[in-house]
Amino acid sequence: MADLKIRNEKVAAEEKRLNELFFDLADDKKKVVSGLVTQAARLKILLDEMWIDISEKGDYELFSQSENQIPYERERPVAKQYNARDQSYQRIVKQLTDYLPEEKREAATTAALDGSDLI
User: Which domain of life, per UniProt (predicted)?
Assistant: First the structure.
């Protein structure tokens, strides 16, 4: 339960950061993007956690169907999930930045993806 509490705190902090990036949207657009912001924050935290696991244990593992079979390398499930979630995250960031005026899109995209704040 403690891990869930910590994860929820991280998600809330990321939601706050993303909301600050998109603070100047019109109120009607903010209502539309609020779900995207929440999902982007969740994905970002999950991706960060998965990245730590992949960095420590690698993308591949030795796997065998039985004790009699010679193990072979296979992509770890967490690496596959990471790639799928990263694609989802990229799509959500694209959707979010599409709501911004053209002149703010590139800076907001960069800030959203790399975890920085706009200057």
Answer: Bacteria
**Dist CA 75 CA 42 (whole Å):** 24
Q: What is the pLDDT along the chain (119 residues), one digit of tens a residue?
A: 569 999 999 999 999 999 988 888 888 888 889 999 999 999 999 999 999 999 999 999 999 888 899 999 999 999 999 999 999 999 999 999 888 877 777 777 787 777 766 54
Alpha carbon separation from 89 to 2, 36, 119 (Å, rounded)? 25, 10, 22
pTM of the model as a whole: 0.81
Using DSSP, state whether 110 is helix, strand or coil.
helix
Q: What b/e readout covers 28-66, taking b as 16+ CB neighbours within 10 angstroms? A: eeeeebeebbbbbbbbbbbbeebeeeeeeeeeeeeeeee
Report whether 112 contacts 18 (CB < 8 A). yes
